[in-house]
Amino acid sequence: MIARLWRHRSLALTLTRRQYELRYRQSLVGLVWAVAAPLATLGVATLLFHKVLRVGTDGAPYSLFALSALVPWGFFASSLTFGVQSITQGGVLVTRFAFPRAVLPLSMIGTAFIDLIISFGLFVAFVYLAGMRVPLSGLWALPLLFLETVLVVAVVLLASALNVFARDVKLFVPIAVQLMLFVTPVMYSLESVPESLRPWFKLNPMAGLVESFRQVLVFGSAPDFSLLLPTILITVVVFGLAIWYFDAAEPRFADVI
Amino acid sequence: MEIVVAQDVVKTYRTGVGRARVREMIPPPFDRALQRVFREWWLRDTFNALDGLSLGVPKGSAIGLVGHNGAGKTTLLKLIAGVTAPTSGAVMTSGRVAALLDVTAGFHPELTGRENLYVAAGMYGLDRRDVLARMDRILDFTELGELIETPVKRYSAGMWARLGFGMVSAIDADLLLIDEVLAVGDSEFQRKCVEWLDGYRQRGGTLLFVSHNLGLVRHMTDRVVWLDHGVILADGPTNQVLGEYARATERRRDQANERDQHSARKLMRVTGLDRWGRGGVRVAEADVRQTAATGRSLIVTMKYEASSTREALFSVGFIDESGFEVGSSLSPHFQLESDVGAVCWEIQQLPLRAGIYYPVMSILSPQGDILDRWKLERAVVLDVNGGPDVRAELGPAEFRGSWIGTP
Q1: How high is the ipTM of this complex?
Q2: Most buried among A165, A197, B54, B90, using CB within 10 Å?
């Protein structure tokens, strides 16, 4: 599967480009939307969690506190919401060409990755506006990003393949993503969760990730590996499952779409 | 060397929508286990589009696939293209396989022609540079000009076909699969495609060709495989199999006509292109033998009904399966003595080559106006009479003449 994908890497890049261009084609302000989405979320989060609920940020400015987690969360959320339909929406291609179908969800993740880079730029801008610097520990963000990408690839491959057979998946995913945002410490900290509930929160693979991103990008400390352990374990299991299932189900996609 | 080998291929599809297909979600090996235990439930609402088919395609050959709708032609092409996998059996191909499975060719309506070409090339493992290197050739072939920068949603069906053909012409395939695509587009472009395909074959390319236009199949291929309900009914030289197929098609049509005649709502098709004219005299009945042979005699009788006109000319002509008007025979002036009557036309040596022809009966006024013209739906099938390969010969008409050699 990996070898076939590698041969079609230029296809994946072409599709990523096209999808990204298509998203903003015939729109008036185009790329502004890539920045507007995280900004709007940040605005609402600041109002609700900072001003109304007054959650603790451990001394960091709330905008940086929230944005450092919103950026990786946005990558996860948009990969999943757009990626789940990638194969069914690419039906025209699936029923006419023989290519590794995984290119479709992967190129969707690719477009979400472009958004990630843009919103990370936004985060860096906020850091300097606050008169601060990104700490050296920020380099930890790269291995964290790798871990998140593997998790995202696994979940999106699985969801997009299952969605071919049961379109319930595409109806379920947006709801799941929305609910997950509430139980993931993106706009609040894991610290503010009552001690008795915290072990349950930590089972969520995204909890350890966004908490770690925040630690390395804002607080200047190395990630806490005990927090990341559930994420790593779940990622490995889901990735194995996703590769196996996608490979087994792929030959039938064209018949069912 | 065989470029395609299909062995005992079975392809099962599920009918219906929605929940029935959820069964497809279960991956191997669990699906096989379930099938063993709950055989009846598992196989409910399924049909075999291909039912144990084996076929070898030698490199450099051109094979036509014919058969009625639902015979499995498109399924076979999809399996060879690798778009889908057989339920059991195996399909093996070597080299680069390019497919035009329908007119839309997998293009995205919002993308421009050029962008679509990049995507399509990527599907075959080519990259941007490969397309750029071939762009002039593609533009030259498709004659799309500036339109290549326009989203293909604004293209006409003919332009889609041009772009699709431009795409396959550029990717240097070893095996080309074409499913009823040449039917779209104007005759000029069709001719261009056929010429390109001729060249492709001369360069050693292999072709699998599906079309209901038997004239094109005859021109393009040297072997024809006739599929019916997912199995091969006949496989052999083009002329032989097409002759058998055409006769079977006519038989089917006759049977259908007979059923129609028994039904109460019998309607004669006298509208559109099948029948027109100013009236006064009309063809009431025509009698043409349904099989004939090149160089042998053929008799056509025509019964007429006259209401006002007392003077007319009769004509019997033939149209071939691609719609080409081959020729006709015009009678001298006839004085019509009574309201009903008949005329008879006999030709001693029919100058038509093996093929399928539709007789056209006409009655003309002495001034040359068409009073009634009727294109019969029943075809005359001409047999192959064991002569030399007519593929090498020009056109449907066979001229009789004498040849003299001088040193």
Answers
A1: 0.82
A2: A165
